[in-house]
Amino acid sequence: MIMVNDIFTLATALAVGMAVGLLNFAGMWSTIHYLPIIKYPSALIMLSYIIRMAIVLATFYFIMDGRWERLLVCLVGFFIVRRVLVKRFLPEGSKMKMTYHSK
After folding, report:
1. Does the residue 53 lie in any domain?
2. What is the rounded CA–CA span in Å between residue 65 and residue 56?
3. Dihedral through CA 29, CA 35, CA 37, CA 42, nearest 10?
4. pLDDT score of 5 more than 80
5. Distance, CA of 70 to CA of 61 (rounded, Å)
6. Count of domains in the chain?
7. Mind listing the pLDDT tens digit for each residue in 16-75?
């Protein structure tokens, strides 16, 4: 039987996953925005990637707290944000499809 505390914990994990997803993709957008004006763009890309992944992985680790269900819900929140942002910012009439595999 699922307890109210479990539902609250999973809802919190979903919200944190969405927040860290938003932070990750906002950081990616910021990195891409500054590429034309920076002297060493490849260093910016690598440093941004390392920092964003460290934040995401550390957040997932602490939210998980040894329970795979929390990690799964956190990942679902992360991918919900990804899906929403891609749908929102994909140009109208674009031939790019929203799939998770390539052909």
Report:
1. yes
2. 15
3. 140
4. yes
5. 10
6. 1
7. 999 999 999 999 999 999 999 999 999 999 999 999 999 999 999 999 988 999 999 999
Identity of the residue numbered 77 = G
Q: How many helices (H) and strands (E) does the chain have?
A: 3, 0
The range of the structural domain enclosing residue 49 comes to 16-85
Q: Which of 66, 67, 68, 58 is nearest to 16 (CA)?
A: 58
Q: Does 38 fall in a domain?
A: yes
- Would 21 be classed as within a structural domain? yes
- Per-residue tokens: 53: 């992944």
**Is position 1 within any domain?**
no
In the structure encoding, which two tokens stand for residue 30, read together? 């910021």
